[in-house]
Structure formats: C-alpha cells, structure tokens
C-alpha cells in the first residue's frame, strides 16, 4: 500500500507549500493537498475559508476541482497527499471523501501527513459503500 518514499516526500512537500497559500483567518488551520497525476504532474490546492463557514472549501476539493478545470479527469489522479499542521495527521472530511469518490478510483491511495505523523488509506476504506449515480443511463 505504501508509495515510494521519494515520491511521497515530493508530494508532501508540494502539499506543505500549498498550505502556505491557505486563506484561514478563522481557524488558523492551513491545509494543503497535492494530487499526483498519471502523467507525473502534481496539482495542488489549499483550504479557503469564508466568514459564512459553509462556503469554505477544503484543500482536497480545491485540488480536485483545479485538476478538473485544467482538463484532467478522475482516471488521471493516481494519489492524493494532504498536509495538516500540528502533530496529528487528519483524514479528509466527509464532503472531501464524497468528492474524492466522484473522481478517484476506489483503490487510489490517500495519504495524510503532518509535522510528526502520517496515515494512509485507500479511498474505499475512507468511504465504503460510497454513493454513486450512473449518469450514463440519463444521457441521450
């Protein structure tokens, strides 16, 4: 299940750098995410807060939405690495898990890192029995 050490370090560094761009005036909890694309490119995202908390966006979703906006699709995402500040490595929130389930393959590796910890999961372990809808049945 482990990704190569050098590859993980590169993605962790990219996620950490992305966290430095986070807009977090309320929580002060700057998170960054890095997606490894099939072609070797890395797409990053950070969390962006809003005074109306429900309008905030997490780093994982920002990175996925950015990848889609740049022309990638879910099959292009090979791995996800998230950086969270502090000592604990946090799993993606429920909203992020559902967005990841929309675009990633069930076996995609997701790694959360912090200053002192690291955890890894497959998407299917983070969101078993994820909600999916077959849109092809509704296309003409």
From TrEMBL:
It holds the Pfam family dCMP_cyt_deam_1. Its cofactor is Zn(2+). One of its GO terms (molecular function) is zinc ion binding. This enzyme scavenges exogenous and endogenous cytidine and 2'-deoxycytidine for UMP synthesis. Residues 6-121 form the CMP/dCMP-type deaminase domain. Its EC number is 3.5.4.5. PANTHER family: CYTIDINE DEAMINASE. The lineage of its organism: Bacteria, Pseudomonadati, Pseudomonadota, Gammaproteobacteria, Alteromonadales. This is Cytidine deaminase. Belongs to the cytidine and deoxycytidylate deaminase family. The keyword Hydrolase applies. Signal peptide: none annotated. It catalyses: 2'-deoxycytidine + H2O + H(+) = 2'-deoxyuridine + NH4(+); cytidine + H2O + H(+) = uridine + NH4(+). It comes from Pseudidiomarina sediminum. It is an enzyme of class 3 (hydrolase). Substrate binds at residues 47-53. It comes from the Bacteria. The active site is at 60 (proton donor).
């Amino acid at each position: 299940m482990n990704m190569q050490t050098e590859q993980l370090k590169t993605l962790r560094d990219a996620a950490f750098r992305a966290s430095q761009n986070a807009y977090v005036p309320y929580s002060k909890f700057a998170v960054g995410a890095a997606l490894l694309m099939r072609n070797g490119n890395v797409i990053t995202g950070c969390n962006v807060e809003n005074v109306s908390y429900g309008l905030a966006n997490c780093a994982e979703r920002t990175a996925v939405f950015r990848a889609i906006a740049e022309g990638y699709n879910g099959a292009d995402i090979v791995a996800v690495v998230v950086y969270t500040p502090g000592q604990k490595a946090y799993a993606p929130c429920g909203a992020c898990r559902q967005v990841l389930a929309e675009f990633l393959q069930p076996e995609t590796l997701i790694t959360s890192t912090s200053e002192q910890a690291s955890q890894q999961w497959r998407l299917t372990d983070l969101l078993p029995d994820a909600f999916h809808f077959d849109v092809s049945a509704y296309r003409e």
